[in-house]
Structure formats: C-alpha cells, structure tokens
Amino acid sequence: MADPSLNDLSAREARRMIGSKEISPVELLEACVERIEAVDPAVNAICARDFDRARVAAVEAERSVVRGDDLPPLHGLPVGVKDLEDTAGLLTTYGSPQYRNHVPETDEIMVARVKRAGGIVFAKTNTPEFGAGANTRNPVWGATGNPFNPMLNAGGSSGGSAVALATGMMPLATGSDMGGSLRIPAAYCGVAGFRPTPGLVATAKRKLGWSSLSVSGPMARSIDDICMLLAHQAADDARDPLSTAVDPRDFATPMPIDLGGLNVGWTTDFGFAPVDKAYAQTMRDKVRQIKGFFRECVEATPDLGDAEGTFSTLRALSFVANHRETYARDPGLLGPNVRANYEQGAAMSLADVAAAEVEHTNLYRRTEEFFQEFDLLIGPTVPISPFPWQTWYLEEMNGEPLRSYFSWLAPTFGITLTTCPAASIPLGLDEKGMPFGLQVIGPAKDDGFVLGAAHAIEQAVRRMPGLGRPTPDIAKLAAGPTPALKSIVEK
C-alpha cells in the first residue's frame, strides 16, 4: 500500500522530492491510483483510466532519476486531463454518447506539451456533454458529486478535475473555460483554477479560431502549482491564430507582489450578475476580513453593460460552428443544453451578431479604463452555494426567474468577455459550510501579475483562521459509494 501522505504533497514539493530521490515516481503514481480506487466511487470524478501505461511511464521516470539524467520540469508527476481534450490512445468521449468509443490517435497541443515536460497522463476527468453547463453530468459517465457533499453540484465544466484535486487523486489537472468552467468548479471544490489570456495556451480544436471565449488552462490545489503547470501548457503554435510568443519562465513561479501597494476594487455582483442575497453578504464579510491587505479596497466594478446578451449571442455562435453538422444529421444526438444553444444561434441574424461584437469591443475598452484606476478586481466566483446535482441549472435567484440555463454563471462569464486573466482561489467556507471561491482579476494580458496577486492573497489568508483552503473528509468519502451519481448513464 502506498503512503497516503503522498496524496497531500503539492506538485512543487512532489517534483522536488522525486529529483532528490526522496520519493519515487512509481510510489507517487500508486498513491494516486489507490486514492482513486478508494474515493472515486463516492464522487465519480474519473472517466477513462490509463493506469497500465502510466505505470510503465513511472518506472521509466524512476530509472531516469537513478541514472542521473537531466529531468524535465514535471518529471514523474501524475496529471489528469479533462475529457474534452484529446489524448492519444486513451478514450476521449467529450461526455457525448456519439463518442462513447472514441480513441484519438494524437494528443491535443497542450496535452502533448505536458507529456514532453515529464507529466504522466494517467486518467481523464469528467465534464458535461461538450462542456455545456456548470453541472458536471453526462449520459456517458454520469454525474460528479461535490467532495464536501457528493449529492451537491461540483461545478463545471471542469468538475472532474476539481474534485480529483480536492480529494488528492492527483497533484495537477487540466481544465477549460468559456463561461467559468475552470473557475466555478475550483470555487465549489476548494481548489485553484486559472483562466489565462486567450491564446496563451494554444489549441487547434477551436473552430472559431479568432474567438476569445474558450480557453484551456491549469487547475491545482494552489497558485504555486498552477504556475508550475501553466509554464508547460503555454505555447506559441501556428495552428492557433490567437497564440503569441511566450517564455515559460514568465509563469514557472508566482511573481512577487506587494499587496500593500495595490488599489483594489471589490464587488458582489459585477454590476449586473444575479447573486443570492446570503452569498453576497458572505462576500462582504470576506472583504472586511481581507481589505487590510491592500493599500485601498473600495466597492467598484467595471461597466460590463449587457454582458448576458453579448455572451449569449457569442456563445450561441460557437455552438453553431461546432455542432452544425451533427444537428443537421439528427438533433437528437445532442443533449438539451447543447441543442438549445445551437437552436438559439441558428435563429440569429447577422445584425444580432454584429451588435454583440460591437458591445463586446466596448465592454473590453470600458474594463481597460477601469484598470487605469485599479490594479485588481475581486469578487465571488459563483453567485450561490452549491445546489443538488440533480438540478441541471438554476432557474431563479432570490425569487426572480433567470433568463437562461447559464444566467447563474454571470460572475464568471462577465469576466470572460473582458479577456482579462482571472483566478479562483479558496477563501474558507460560505454561509452553508461549503467552499467559497474568490475571483481575482487583473488587466488584460497581464497573467503573471494576476497569478502573483492571487498567490500573495492565498499566502496571506493562510495565517487567518477560517480563510484558508478547506479540505474534504477523505475517510468519510472512502467509507461508501454514492451509486446515484451514475444513475443517469445511458445503457
């Protein structure tokens, strides 16, 4: 049996200990496999598993250490990959019955880079069908439960990655984010997620290559480990028209930031987002506890205008691009969320799209004006405490009906439109005793600064009772499965 303390190591510390021969890549991998086998029946975070090939890779990684080879930066670290990302020779379903048996021949750009940096890809993590929605459930793998209460929503669409990290199944995992898919599950599960500047992590899978909405990025239990992974996800690749030349050393470790020199704006609703009244009060309480970190911390937000209408149009446009052929063949092949987005987009006019693009541009410029006055913006990552995963999405907030199935994601999709880099970091618990996520946002294209500021906040709150990263009860999760999580799988 592997040493369970290995599951609690940060990726940074695990890599140091591998390099110094204090632990073996084989031991670390086995600890992760054993944790998955013990805990995943309760949370259902893991999809396809590649343990046999990973064991071969771990043995070779150990031999490299013994030989004294030059070791790559992620050498021997087990990595989980979200089931939206192609992995060569490993089942990749995108959460869709259409791809139940799909095994790609090649790795996605980012996956290949992580492997070249020494990461051992050993499992895929669960996601909604094609990543649509912030509730990680699909008809192939079932639902993923929150590690603090498996009958509650783990967030999405990178819910499997967040749960796997929170429960110690792996030290690093990948995610992706359009309307909050990295940030929301990080907030609900008490881990860290980072939405980078569009193009920083190159991709060849985005059909609308010039769209800034969808990005891939890192997830981990700390910003330090986020930086470690991002440095080897980031790349300049000609197949991605938004990618730019990057130096991985810019992200390898968090930039030193003096919080005491920052002017910070804080908000509960970003000026437009529906937010549960009790959750908004929790945010105010958190701000009172941390505002002394900064030179100035005042209530302020950029003018995001008609963020929901703009995001709704541009999101629908991407669904038309991605799913037109499937819908034409048989609409029933698409789940309800995906189908609804496609049909919305197919009914739009060119004038609708043009108006959304104009507002998107104006929103970006207004946000940059905000950052001429403020260094940083902080707010809640999500608008409400986790709800049961059986509820596909929230239909109302504070007794008022919401416009669409993704309206409750407003605190994150509003920031998506700004193109600003944004991190979600744990900030203790909310009013219902579930993890609370703080969204940390900075100026466009200044990823290093945002990561540095988020890391500095993360380090500062560690000294404050009740504000550090919460951890789930692993023994309780391992004591029994949650069979209902797989009840929605199509046989």
How many helices does DSSP assign?
14
Low-confidence stretches: none
The name CATH uses for the topology is Amidase signature (AS) enzymes
CATH classification, class level: Alpha Beta
Helix fraction by DSSP (H/I, runs of at least 4): 25-40%
Number of strands: 17
Q: What overall form do the CA principal axes indicate?
A: globular
- Please give the radius of gyration in angstroms: 21 Å
How much of the polypeptide forms β-strand, as a percent range?
Answer: 15-25%
Structural class: alpha+beta
CATH structural architecture: Alpha-Beta Complex
Biggest beta sheet attributes? 11 strands, mixed
What count of domains describes the coordinates?
A: 1
CATH superfamily: Amidase signature (AS) domain
Give an overview in words.
- With 491 residues, this protein is α+β, with helices and mostly antiparallel strands.
- It has one domain: Amidase signature (AS) enzymes.
- 37% of the residues lie in helices and 15% in strands.
- It is built from 14 helices and 17 strands.
- The longest helix is centred in the C-terminal third of the chain and has 24 residues.
- The chain is globular.
- The two termini are 34 Å apart.
